[in-house]
Amino acid sequence: MIVAVLNQKGGVGKTTLALHLAGEWALRGKSVTLIDADPQGSALDWSQQRARENVARLFGVVGLARDTLHREAPEIARTADHVVIDGPPRVAGLMRSALLAADLVLIPVQPSPFDGWASAETLALLREARIYRPQLAARFVLNRCGARTIIAREIAALAAEVARFAP
Ligand SMILES: Nc1ncnc2c1ncn2[C@@H]1O[C@H](COP(=O)(O)OP(=O)(O)O)[C@@H](O)[C@H]1O
Ligand SMILES: [Mg+2]
């Protein structure tokens, strides 16, 4: 499966979620490759730092911050159980490419109106991608927010509302 962790906004937790998801799958015995599609290369930096410190490698990280991602990701997926794409902020071309490659899109959001507005742009790109790929699944992931809090309930209700208008 190819999972793309996307949100136009920076700092919402894309890299954190992508690394944890890849790590969790690897610990369960799956072969995983993480594609760092962010030109800033935070996931690559993380992986290189671990190599320097001789920490055991859980999964491979490759840097692929280019618009040909939609052709290259399925190639990589052929030799792995799962591919996780750590998406870029802002770059619409890269984001479109990731949306063309993915089976599932995860959109991390934090409980703030700023995140809501940025997610609207991401949802517009998602809607566009679904013209070509109607089966493309997408889910919001509430980040940095206690699951049982009032704000979590409010944001979940808001996300459900948004998803109804941008299914
Ligand atoms: N659930 C979380 N709890 C605490 N800190 C978090 C959490 N998710 C992300 N962060 C922190 O927030 C910052 C931004 O996260 P990052 O994954 O780099 O976001 P993005 O990739 O969307 O720019 C980082 O310093 C990261 O350690
Ligand atoms: Mg990132």
UniProtKB/TrEMBL annotation:
CDD domains with a match to the protein in the record: ParAB_family
Source domain of life: Bacteria
Protein source organism: Bradyrhizobium yuanmingense
Ranges in coiled-coil conformation: none
CobQ/CobB/MinD/ParA nucleotide binding domain mapped to chain residues: 3-159
Xref: NCBIfam families: ParA_partition
Pfam family, one: CbiA
Name of the protein described by the UniProt record: Chromosome partitioning protein
